Amino acid sequence: MRSIATFTEEKMALRFWNYLQAIEIESNLEEDDNNEEWLVWVLDEEKFALALQAYKEFLNSPDDSKFTISKKNKTDDNQNKEESTRKSRFRNYNLRDSWLKQNKSPGMISLALIITSVAVYLLSGMGKNAEIVSVFLISEKANGSLSEISSGQVWRIITPIFLHFGALHIIFNMLWLHELGGQIEKRKGAGFISIFILVTAIVSNLTQFKFGGPMFGGMSGVVYGLLGYIWIKSRFDPGDGLYINQNTALFMLAWFFLCFANIFPGVANWAHAGGLVTGAVWGYISAVRWNR
After folding, report:
1. Hey, which end of the chain has fewer CB within 10 Å, N or C?
2. Tell me: the pLDDT tens digits for 52-82?
3. pTM, rounded to two decimals
């Protein structure tokens, strides 16, 4: 969902919104919190360019007859009645509340990752079964060669994200994966979140292996990637609809630096760093692209 237009006149906003509906561009209309402006939001990002072109045409000639004809050529009386109904409905529509409610449930990919992580946690005896844990490590050797991956065990570049070594470890990561991953998946789709997690997992795992060795595991590198993406996108491209409470972001960043200060030893700090940088850069590039 992305903001496409802002109007100070309710009549103009309704006319443009009605035109988008007529050309089959699904959109929402809401009044801002100060009751001063009307905002039009396009639901399908694939039709954003088409909606933007329509908005430019509307600004050039808002009185053009094509902007006053509904999709079914309704009579003026019926159209006025319909617009009146829409006005009362949209006045009570709060888009941010809708986002927050929507983002409480995980998507298919996020849920699958949670289930897999919990299954591996239990199968590995809560991270204590060395034989099973070794299968999921990026490497069983500390020589820095990643010889297992080069010999064909390519899954090892991903599978450390499924390892967890304590109840708090897995609960913390799964809660954030549910919250952050579910939000992105609902906005961007299963394809995007799959690629994002795959790339973030690879970068965070390789970064941790490079600077900390092979004995690590956890979803936290991916979680920090999700955090970085949402945080940057919400700041530089708020129209994309992603949201994170600033206090939550500050808490996560504080935890990041406390772990790096070795106040809490045994944490895969470089995985956190790799994930956070990857997500933040990805979010910034995406925001710049949309803002252009």
Report:
1. C
2. 888 888 888 777 777 765 444 444 544 554 4
3. 0.69
**Separation CA 66–CA 22 (nearest Å):** 10
Strands 2-7 and 27-31: unpaired
Please give the Cα distance from 292 to 278 (Å, whole number).
21
Give the span between the Cα atoms of 45 and 159, in whole angstroms: 33
Question: 3-state SS of the chain: helix, strand, coil percent to 5?
Answer: 65, 5, 30
Residue 123 pLDDT class (50, 70, 90 cuts): very high
The number of CA neighbours under 13 Å toward the Cβ of 151 is 6
Residue entry with tokens 């820095």: 144
Give the whole-angstrom CA distance, residue 290 versus residue 240: 9
Q: Domains plus CATH for the chain?
A: 2-93 (3.30.70.1530), 104-291 (1.20.1540.10)
Spatial contact of 40 and 5, defined as CB atoms under 8 Å apart: yes
Question: Residue 125's closest CA among 164, 159, 177, 156?
Answer: 164
